[in-house]
Design brief:
The complex is a heterotrimer of chains A (about 290), B (about 210) and C (about 675). Chain B is mainly α. Chain B has helices spanning about 20-25, 40-45, 55-65, 70-75, 75-80, 85-90, 95-110, 120-135, 140-150, 150-165, 180-205. Chain B has eleven helices and no strands. The termini of chain B are far apart. Chain C contains 17 helices and 34 strands. Chains in contact: A-B, A-C, B-C.
């Protein structure tokens, strides 16, 4: 079956390695995706802070667009970015549950030539890979297993909270299971694996935000992880790109590669480094990956 | 060493907004606002409550009591990173994160924050950027925000920015969405008009 | 039992109706023109006398009725006044006193249904007239009915042998009644037997409980059955038949003296199975004594652990060791059937399983315990001989006690479990006494309502226990400072101070909620009672009838009706015994005749009505091929009457004639 692919703004810029590696993994695993034509920004957390109906309409437009392009049947939309994933689900719920706003939004959709049927289900790539493709198939495809690589799987907040969808809210395991199927060893760290990385605070209120990301990296290091794997472009950005600032602020020579899980998975599937965006990382994973290749 | 100056702190009933609590309770997420037993789980589980002037629990108490100014002018609502830990852990299932969003919207509506405070400034820049082009652009949004609030930060993060730029992970050019971004603008305007209309109708029938 | 119509055919005699319109002071008169209604009533064809009066329920009011019946030969009475719930029985009695069958009476409610709910006086008066017309038309079709009497068997079944069941059983037995006490565990005593001390007096639980357990065992009027369950109950108030299932101990109870030689001799050198009485903190062998003061003081063999019972192959060293030849592997499940008149349910509660809250790390990190487990630790007969110790055998230097685990939580149990604040204070005191540790209680509200409870809290405040008002969000082993390394860290907002705090402790105690027993649905169905939304057995009225149920003859005692402490449990058990005794002492119960009955000539045996009855009052007579209603179980709800396709099911006081005429009466003046 074909999935609608909603990349979200970050996957075209700071999260480019996520898109590159994810699409490669999907190709190998036989997951057919088609990018949603004319998609717009989901609004992330910013829109909901400014205007509620705007936020619902902005995010909801993508759902209505998908329904316009696929007028028959149910639609499965893959949203790799955690924030997009949650915002799209939230918009769907709110349009259906909030009387005035839902009606206003639906009305605006119909005037723009779209109808909202509520037929879109939003999926996360972790969910699709583990539950639709299946771990057995993934294992088969991993011709270059990540033997000896110790991964700290970091889920972030918004795929496990507030909605309990495809994974346990306290101790999610889909990424762990996925990367274990790819041959890696994963770390047990319920204290950190779904603890907030700081979101946008790392840029605005750095003392607070960067500390949140720092303690995650510190714990990963304490547990002797070789690399942190993430599923969200903002989480990955926070965990990787501020390490220079963290070293100064916390007087700690921290250096922990932080990758997208699809990059690791793709590597295990034998896909070339260039195609996985591995050369575009600020903290090089070269040493860690070389060690496991041996 | 904190100042030993004397400050007189008392709140008279004429100074509180008796409708504020109900107002917030009528917004999305505020349905169970009055069920709060002030247990403090939200503050306990919140990863940034240690930086807040008022912890989330206190914000709920202040909101219900009508202390509108305190709630909208202190840093709590802006520090909320929407991690939803409070929402999931609240024993009364109060959607605290959504209450924070409602308070953010109220604060922006009333302009109740310092102009150079980066969090609402970023939200507004993001909003404007998407309104204009249908997609968000990190360099533009962040640069504009820092210029407005704290230009020094630009220099601090310049090195990181350049590294990302060189690796193709930041775009200078604004990415345009397929189809006219005007569609998005029109949609949002239509929604806003319709919503105002529906609200007016509802107010009449009450 | 005779279930046919009571005799008189409706409409046999010409009705001569007396109508009395009550002003009820100003309650009705302020909204209804009383004299107009009375005049109107007088114009109705079958009405012989029409009066109005200020307070019909008073003695002079009732005298009016009685005199009129005698003087004017009235044979039907209508009173237009308040709700039948209040005074139907008053006026029925007045009729009876005048020699008229009390069921020749009908009430029209012109207070709750008219004056209290209508604004306009003219409209109210017209409505009152309609209701009076309806009552007058209907009452002509009333026929004489008699209350039925049911004898009450003096035996009592008490289900559950905790402190509630023990109290009820002793009260009843001392009153001379034969009591069957059924307990599913191998010993009576319930949860109270597991405690060390009880609040607020810090009485030793065993010291106050074991004499009662002994009394129960030795009482000539109590038949104590342990390892037993009530499998099924049939009958109705005063005449229940209960089938009791006895699980085998594989020990002859009369021979065993509790010497425990068999346990020492068992082929298993060490215990391997979780000891239920010790809340899983210690291990036992297949043959074991539940606890030293178990009553009866008899060992038992676990058929799912014993080698011989599982595989048939064992050296049977236990048999060799037993000097009394008490071991009997051939024992089977047996049954007993008993006839009782009343039942007291005292099946108790179970604890909330904190694994359902992974943030508290129960089962994941060491040294996180439930309050019940700590009770066993501090108990001298427990797994550590009364010492509070960590997994590594050392005493804790700091302990955190978390209140409200699973209580006051919409995601688990919305209610407050009532006893855990006091229990947590008690444990704080005992832990501090035994270990000298720093003790921290994390609470939302401190609930200490009972006698001596607030004083107990005050005592604790002076003992150096730290009280932090803040519900705990998580218990973690992730350390942020050197002092937290290797400890359990409790994170909470100290709401009184207004800051988040992290307290490192060696041991965490979770004060878990009280919940209904896991099989409460099965139990309630066996006894034909209802449960509340959370699963507690439902009392007849939350304020005025806390020990009776909607099934006559079934009473509730103890935590099975809702979380409560020991004093309340004992009080409630006494009350349940008292109500049972009141019924037994009177010797009979009168059943209202507004029950349904089935005309066997019209019944086709289609069985539509059988599953409809919420009180399982309908059975099928296989010989006659028709349905029959037990008028004692029937509550007159009318469901079967509505369901019956042939009209065979009818209800006294709600026959088709009566109901249709009433409707016509309303419509005649609308």
């Amino acid at each position: 079956m074909k999935y609608v692919y909603y990349p979200g703004c970050s996957l075209k810029s700071s999260g480019k390695p996520y898109e590159e590696s994810l699409l490669e993994v999907f190709k190998k695993a036989g997951v057919e995706v088609e990018e949603l034509g004319g998609w717009n920004c989901c609004g992330a957390t910013a829109y909901m802070s400014v205007d509620e109906s705007d936020a619902m309409a902005l995010a909801g437009r993508n759902l209505a667009l998908a329904e316009k392009e696929h007028p028959e049947g149910r639609i499965e939309m893959i949203a790799p970015c955690n924030a997009c994933y949650l915002v799209l689900m939230k918009a769907k719920k709110q349009i259906e549950e909030r009387a005035h706003l839902g009606a206003a939004v639906q009305d605006a959709f119909s005037r723009a030539g779209m109808t909202y049927r509520g037929e879109v289900t939003i999926r996360h790539p972790l969910d699709v890979l583990v539950n639709d493709v299946g771990l057995d198939r993934i294992k088969e495809l991993c011709t270059r297993p990540l033997k000896g690589l110790k991964v700290a799987c970091y889920y972030g907040c918004q795929i496990v909270r507030p909605y309990a969808t495809f994974d346990d809210q306290f101790n999610p395991m889909t990424m762990d299971n996925l990367l274990r199927a790819a041959g890696a060893e994963t770390v047990e760290w319920t204290s950190m694996k779904a603890r907030c990385c700081g979101g946008t605070l790392t840029g605005t209120i750095d003392s607070a935000g960067q500390r949140l990301s720092y303690i995650i990296l510190k714990e990963a290091r304490r547990l002797q992880a070789d690399v942190v794997a993430t599923a969200c472009p903002l989480c990955q950005f926070n965990l990787e790109c501020y390490q220079g600032s963290m070293r100064k602020r916390f007087d700690d020579d921290l250096e922990m590669p932080s990758l997208f899980f699809s990059q690791l998975l793709g590597h295990a599937m034998g896909i070339k480094r260039r195609k996985l965006g591995l050369q575009d990382m600020l903290v090089s994973p070269r040493k860690a990956l070389k060690a496991c290749e041996a | 060493m904190k100042s030993l100056e004397i400050e007189r702190r008392i709140k008279y009933e004429s100074e509180v907004n008796p409708d504020f609590g109900k107002e917030i309770a009528s917004m999305t997420g505020g349905e169970d606002l009055y069920s709060c037993i002030q247990c403090g789980t939200c503050s306990s589980t919140c990863p940034v409550s240690i930086y807040m002037h008022y912890t989330p629990r206190r914000v709920i108490a202040l909101t219900r009591a009508g202390f509108e100014d305190e709630v909208l002018t202190h840093n709590t609502i802006w520090l909320c990173a929407s991690c939803y830990a409070c929402t999931v852990d609240c024993p009364k299932e109060i959607r605290i994160t959504d209450v924070m969003y409602a308070l953010k919207r109220k604060a922006i509506e009333r302009g109740a924050y310092p102009r150079r405070f980066p969090v609402p400034a970023l939200a507004k820049e993001f909003y404007n950027s998407v309104h204009r082009s249908g997609r968000s652009n990190e360099i533009h949004t962040v640069t504009k925000t820092f210029l407005k609030t704290n230009p020094l930060k630009l220099f601090k993060n310049a090195a990181m920015g350049i590294k990302l730029l060189l690796r193709g992970r930041l775009q200078i050019r604004e990415e345009k969405m397929e189809g006219a971004p005007a569609e998005v603008r029109e949609l949002l305007d239509a929604v806003r008009q319709k919503r105002k209309g529906l609200e007016q109708e509802a107010a009449k029938t009450v | 039992m005779d279930t046919s119509n009571n005799g008189n055919k409706p409409g046999q005699e010409r009705a001569k109706v007396g109508v009395y319109v009550c002003a009820c002071g100003l309650n009705i008169a302020s909204k209804v023109h009383i004299d107009e209604v009375r005049e109107f009533a007088g114009t109705l064809p079958s009405v012989g006398v029409a009066r109005d009066y200020k307070f019909m329920c008073s003695d002079p009011g009732q005298e009016l009725i009685i005199n009129d019946i005698k003087e004017h030969g009235l044979n039907r009475i209508v009173v237009a006044s308040c709700s039948p719930l209040l005074h139907e029985h008053t006026f029925r009695k007045a009729c009876e006193d005048a020699g008229l069958n009390p069921y020749h009476f009908q009430m029209a409610n012109i207070r709750e249904h008219v004056s209290w709910v209508t604004e306009d006086m003219e409209l109210a008066t017209e409505k009152a007239k309609s209701l009076v017309a309806a009552a007058v038309e209907r009452v002509a079709f009333h026929y004489a009915l008699e209350k039925k009497r049911v004898d009450i068997n003096g035996n009592v079944l008490v289900v559950g042998g905790g402190i509630a069941g023990i109290t009820a059983a002793l009260n009843l037995a001392n009153a001379g009644k034969q009591v069957y006490l059924v307990e599913r565990q191998p010993s009576i005593g319930g949860h109270m037997a597991q405690f060390d001390k009880t609040f607020p007096t810090l009485d030793c639980a065993a010291c106050i409980l074991t004499p009662k357990m002994s009394e129960v065992k030795n009482h000539p009027n109590i038949t104590m059955w342990t390892m037993s369950e009530v499998e099924n109950v049939s009958g109705y108030v005063g005449n229940f038949t209960a089938k009791v299932k006895h699980y085998p101990r594989y020990i002859k109870e009369d021979s065993c003296v509790g010497c425990n030689d068999c346990i020492d001799a068992c082929v298993f050198k060490n215990g391997k199975w979780e000891n239920e009485f010790d809340a899983g903190l210690s291990l036992r062998k297949p043959v074991y004594m539940p606890f030293p003061q178990a009553t009866p003081s008899t060992v038992l063999i676990d058929p799912e652990a014993c080698l011989y019972l599982m595989k048939g192959k064992c050296k049977q060293t236990c048999v060799d060791a037993c000097e009394r030849d008490a071991i009997d592997f051939t024992q089977q499940v047996t049954y007993d059937e008993v006839e009782v008149g009343t039942v007291v349910l005292s099946t108790g509660f179970k604890s909330f399983d904190p694994k359902r809250m992974p943030e508290y790390a129960y089962g994941r990190l060491d040294n996180v315990h439930t309050s019940l487990e700590i009770e066993r630790l501090v108990n001298s007969t427990g797994p550590s001989g009364g010492e509070v110790v960590l997994k590594n055998g050392e005493k804790p230097k700091s302990v955190g006690i978390i209140h409200c685990v699973g209580s006051r939580d919409k995601r688990h149990n919305p209610y407050c479990s009532s006893v855990c604040c006091m229990a947590s204070l008690k444990l704080a005191h005992l832990i501090k006494e035994r270990t000298g540790a720093q003790v921290y209680n994390f609470y939302i509200d401190m609930r200490t309502p009972g006698k001596g409870y607030e004083e107990f809290y005050d005592k604790l405040l002076g003992e150096g226990v730290h009280f932090i008002r803040g519900r705990v969000a998580e218990v973690t082993d992730w350390a942020m400072t050197p002092e937290e390394e290797g400890k359990l860290v409790i994170r909470a907002e100290d709401t009184m101070i207004g800051m988040a705090r992290r307290i490192p402790v060696d041991m965490v105690v979770l004060a878990v909620a009280l919940e209904p027993q896991p099989d409460h649905e099965d139990i309630r169905r066996t006894f034909n009672i209802s449960c509340s939304k959370e699963g507690w057995f439902l009392e007849r009225h939350p304020k005025l009838a806390p020990v009776s149920t909607f099934s006559d003859g079934i009473y509730l005692a103890g935590a099975c009706q809702g979380p409560k402490d020991i004093p309340a449990t004992v009080a409630q058990a006494g009350a349940a015994a008292g109500e049972a005794l009141a019924l037994i002492s009177r010797g009979y119960m009168e059943i209202e005749p507004n029950t349904a009955w089935i005309d066997p000539d019209l019944c086709s045996g289609c069985k539509t009505c059988l599953p409809q009855c919420p009180y399982t009052a309908i059975t099928r007579n296989e010989d006659k091929g028709v349905a029959e209603i037990n008028p004692v179980l029937c509550k007159g709800c009318g469901t079967c009457v509505g369901a019956c396709p042939s009209g065979a099911a009818q209800q006294h006081l709600f026959t088709d004639d009566q109901v249709y005429t009433e409707i016509e009466g309303i419509l005649s003046h609308v």
